[in-house]
Amino acid sequence: PGEGDAAVLRVKGTARGLAVSLDCNSRYCWLDPGLGARHAVAEAARNVSCVGGRPLALTNCLNFGNPARPAGYFQLREAVQGIADASAVFTIPVVSGNVSLYNETARSAVLPTPTIGVVGVLDDVSRHATMRWQDGDVVVLLGGGQPVLGGSEYLAVTTGETFGAPPPLDLAAEMALVGLVRNQIAAGAVRTAHDVGLGGIAVALAEMAILSGTGFVADAGAVPADRAAWFGESATRILVALPDAGVAGLERAAATDGVSVRRLGAVGGQGLSVGDAAVMVEDLARVWDHALADRASGSEGA
Question: 190 pLDDT exceeds 90?
Fold first, then answer.
C-alpha cells in the first residue's frame, strides 16, 4: 500500500497476490451520473492493472441523496446503469454492494458517489509494478485519452467550482490499454506504472517523483504548453517508466494491441523540469507531506 495505484497483498503459502483499489470521482458523477459511474469502474480496474493485477470482482458503495426527489432518483438510476454497462464490458461481476441513501441536509444533498472497489489477482506477486522509477528510465505515455478540464481537479482548485463535461470514456480502448500493461508487467518488461488521473499528467509525474525521490526532464515539445495538456484529465492513459533498451519492445507490443505510445522524457535530476522551468522534488514532497496540516491551519499556498 502506498507504493502503487492499488494495494498488493501476498497470499501466504502461494506465489500469488491480490490487488485492491477503491475509486470514484464524485464531481464527474454530479455532472453526468452514468458516465461518472463508468469512469469509477474503469479507474478501479485500471489501478488494479497498473500493479499487474487481473480484475476479478467488483463491489460498490452507493452514496446518494433522497431518491424520492427527481434529481436523486435520476442520479441513482443512471449510476447503477453505468456500473452495469462498464462491468459487462470488463466482464467483472458485481459480487456485493452497499447503499447509503438520504445523505442530505435541508439545503443540499451530497454529490452522487458510487464508490467502486475492484479486487484482482497476480499469478506471480513478485512481478508487480509500483510508481517508483529509476534514474535514467524513459517515461512513456500509453493510451490516447484526450485531456479536458471539465469537472477537473484543476478547475476545482483554481475556481472552487465544478462545471463542464467530464472526459469521454471508450471502454474498448480502456480494455486494450490495461491488457497491454498487465501483460508487460507479467513479462517483467515493466516495473513502473501509474495511471493519469486527478490533476492530469503534471500531478501524475509529481506523484512518481515524490515517491521515487528523483526528478524528471521533459523532452522538448513532448507535452504542449497549455493548461489542458498538463492538468486536463481523461481516461485511458497510463505512464510507464522503463530502461531505454526496453522501449522498442513496448512499442511493438502496443502496436499489436492498438495502443498509442508517446515518449515524454527521462528520469533524472532533482526537479520536474520542462524547458527552462523546474520545480524541485523536495519542494513538491514538502507540500504533499504537510498538505493536511497546512489546510487545517489555513496556511496552504503560503
Answer: yes
